[in-house]
Amino acid sequence: MQGEAYLYDGRSAIRHRVDVTLTERRDALVISGDALPEPLVWPLPDLRALGDHPDDSQIILTRHLDTEDETLRDQARLVIDDPEMVTWLRRTRPRLHRRDLRHGTWRRIWLSLGGAVAAVLLMVFVILPALAGTLAELLPVEKEIAFGRSVKAQMERMFGAEENGALDCDAPAGRAALDRLVARLTEGQDIGYPLEVTVIEHGMMNAFAVPGGQIVVMNGLLKGAETPDMVAAVLAHEIGHVAHRDPTRNALRAAGSVGLLGLLFGDFTGSAVMVLLAEQLVNASYTQDAEAQADAFAFDTLVAADLPPEALAEMFETFRKEYGDVSGPMAHFASHPRLAERIEAARDATPAELAPRPALTETEWQALRSICD
Amino acid sequence: MSDGNYAHGDYTGDGKALFFLALRTGLLTFFTLGIYRFWAKTRIRRFIWSSTRLDGSRFEYTGTGLEKFLGFLMAVVILAVYLGLIQILLFWFGMTIFATPASPEQALAQSIGFSLSGLAVLPFVFFAIYRARRYRMARTRWRGIRFGMEKNAWGYAFRAMGYWALTLLSLGLLTPLMTFRLEKYMTDRTWFGDARFEQQGRWTALYGKMKHVFIGLALLIASGVGFALSADGFSGLTLLAIVAIPVGVVWFGIGLISYNVQSFAYLAQNKTLGERIAFHAEPRTKDIILAYIVGSIVLAIGLSVATAVWGGLAAALLSGVDFETAGPGFQPAMVAPILVTAAGYMLTLIAAHAGALAAITQPIIKHYVTTMTLINLPALASIQQRASDPGADAEGFADALDIGGAI
């Protein structure tokens, strides 16, 4: 095995024509040329080839060497075009492309990885939520109400409204019944905002709280609920969110964590999906707490208004029939997680000595159900 | 290759090889939830760098995926803390200042207020641009000699923000000043071995390269004047004004590409290395636009054929499901077709990415490389090696902020 090649010695930009042969013991390459003061000897096991090379008929060699160089390789490069030498190297040196890691590399990887993960977790789960809570408290109420209006307007547009308020349901008798129910639930309580409950024309069985004391009930919920107590229970739950300023806090927290997560997943094919899933996961971990607190608030409110907390359990049962139970790993992705646990809690919260008064009279209940007609 | 004094650039990379390299690494990136992207980018750079030859000697990229990954982790820690805090605070200020959008103007002001958080990363963006170029230079070798750049990322970031502000305030008229000065700032800090690059020339010379931008603008303005003059009735002038709009828009667009290509050429022609070596570059705007169009057509045809085949497979699987009798909720029969469709969608995106790299980006690089010449080759013999640069964050900031594009 011998032939001609080019050498770049790693010290100057000159190209040297050199001869390459094997040592007598066939354990190293000997590189000699006019410009070299003495031949270079590269042991065969130390030979390395440059990877992802676009030309199969050429090999560029260097050798494994612990130097100042950042790559753990000799700075010199040997360019081999001779077909015989290329074939010989491929045949006898299958590990030319092996990678060399500096001692302690794995330790560095784990330290960096651990540090980064800890910093991100600390931000997403501790600092941002705490900051969101403080900032939500600091926000003047009238600003929050105005912000809530624009959020509600955006949601309505998402549900297909052409202009603000286009989906609102306002049949006078139904409105009166709703107002009476809300008044009974909030009697003697300071929510912190003027409460504003609207019903919108939409088939989904759901209700949600918007920043600034607004609660939106979807018509599908009124149709799906079997008793006015169930509607009262849902309202009490949403009032709980309002009292805890959950929607505002959540908007603030999401503003911080979405930017951060976007940073983490970067820009590769499918990264948007990852950011969305991760945000869902983070979001779910808060909503679980927030939901449990809103439930607890609802139980107290209901009992104080002589209404059975059990009605919330009945409502959850209806959700379960309609949309299926969400438990196990999928529970993390649902914003109303672990229905079974919450049903249990609602049943337990109903005192034995409670003497319930109906939430609405039959006439009022029928009026409320046809508020959108 | 060389006639003693001149060294010409050539490019040996093959479209098919790059496509399959990008496809393989793209799939690995997807299946590792994005972690492999640092190694993917490194391997693609290794391929492109070593496909590029000057005077028959290949360039070499010595960066590693691992150092990019570690640099990214470091940048993430800093940016995560900074961005998380700045975004939540700005969002809160947005809420307190602009809360009632009573009019469309106010709503606009509000959305601008919320998008201000984008500006918060701007210093980091320019910082990252310089750091990324420094890293790429530090990991590029030719004839075994390292390139390198000095540490001045913050100096660059402040200047870049200043020149951008000037450019925006002058409605783009000072673009050549920005292009020239920022490139000079970087070039004057770039080294090949122990020889320094220098940017010569004048920034006003770049106005000539903006010729087609101005023609496009003039057409649009003329069309506006034409409409104003023919306001009292339809005439030949109105017709001219109508025709001038699309012509002006296309001319303006081509003008922007032309400015990019020709200002690059001017800046390259006026660079010197070690005071003795000069460069010649004559990239042609029309060839670059042509490369873009041809590449896009090839890519579009390739992708349509691939999606047609995959879509047929998905349709065949779906045809087994009876939608009429299937009730709402979970249907086990739907799993296979949904998986096939989702896999097809992801595969199409990854293939499109790889295809664009091989069919559009690579031919454009090839054009730039093959129209580049180095003058005074013998002077290279005196250039000596420079010390290795640890590379700091290995362009982690650029990766975290998604700047730097395809390669």
From TrEMBL, chain A:
GO terms for biological process: proteolysis involved in protein catabolic process. Binds 1 zinc ion per subunit. Residues 4-91 form the DUF7092 domain. Pfam families: DUF7092 (PF23368), Peptidase_M48 (PF01435). Its cofactor is Zn(2+). Keywords: Hydrolase, Membrane, Metal-binding, Metalloprotease, Protease, Transmembrane, Transmembrane helix, Zinc. Gene3D superfamilies: Metalloproteases ('zincins'), catalytic domain (3.30.2010.10). GO terms for cellular component: membrane. It comes from the Bacteria. Residues 176-348 form the Peptidase M48 domain. InterPro entries: DUF7092, Mito/Outer_Membr_Metalloprot, Peptidase_M48. One of its GO terms (molecular function) is metalloendopeptidase activity. The chain crosses the membrane at residues 109-132. Belongs to the peptidase M48 family. This is Peptidase family M48.
Automatic annotation (TrEMBL), chain B:
InterPro entries: DUF898 (IPR010295). Keywords: Membrane, Transmembrane, Transmembrane helix. The keyword Magnesium does not apply. Pfam families: DUF898 (PF05987). The chain crosses the membrane at residues 17-39, 69-95, 107-130, 212-231, 237-268, 289-318, 338-360. This is DUF898 domain-containing protein. It comes from Salipiger thiooxidans.
